[in-house]
Automatic annotation (TrEMBL):
Pfam families: RCR. The lineage of its organism: Eukaryota, Fungi, Dikarya, Ascomycota, Pezizomycotina. This is Uncharacterized protein. Residues 60-135 are annotated as: Disordered. Residues 92-105, 126-135 have a biased composition (Polar residues).
Length: 135
């Protein structure tokens, strides 16, 4: 009974303070909704429903968020080394191109698939039952 009385009196006291334009006190603040508290306390007001697609600077001008990116490289710097010359001393790969005469197929040669299906890797595991659905 005491708890119900506390809840009722606290709720009525909080509503009365809200009607006067005062914020509710800490011990009965939780009894009123956030929307009701937003009428007297700006911290509980709902956010603006306007959409702001731009960020603005101090002068009120929109800031362009998608400016041109910087160049990938500095054209004034030296170019990276290229490896078109002879291979360096001590290298194991003589030809930088991996396509040699042995790996290239002549253009007039046609590809032929091997005859028949591939062999099965599994042995048949029949149980000897005559029911075809129980094998």
């Amino acid at each position: 009974m005491a708890i119900a009385l506390y809840l009722l009196v606290g709720y009525l006291h909080a509503k009365k303070r809200l009607q006067k334009g005062l914020p509710p006190l800490a011990y009965h603040r939780w009894l009123v909704s956030r929307a009701e508290r937003g009428r007297v306390d700006p911290r509980f007001q709902p956010p603006d429903a306007t959409v702001r697609p731009y960020y603005y600077n101090a002068n009120g001008q929109p800031i362009d968020m998608y400016t041109m990116p910087p160049p990938v490289y500095d054209p004034n710097m030296a170019r990276p080394p290229n490896y078109e010359g002879p291979p360096p001393a001590g290298s194991t790969k003589a030809n930088p191109s991996q396509w040699t005469e042995s790996t290239q197929r002549p253009a007039d040669e046609e590809y032929a698939a091997p005859p028949g299906p591939p062999p099965s890797a599994l042995a048949p595991q029949g149980t000897g039952n005559t029911n075809p659905f129980r094998n």
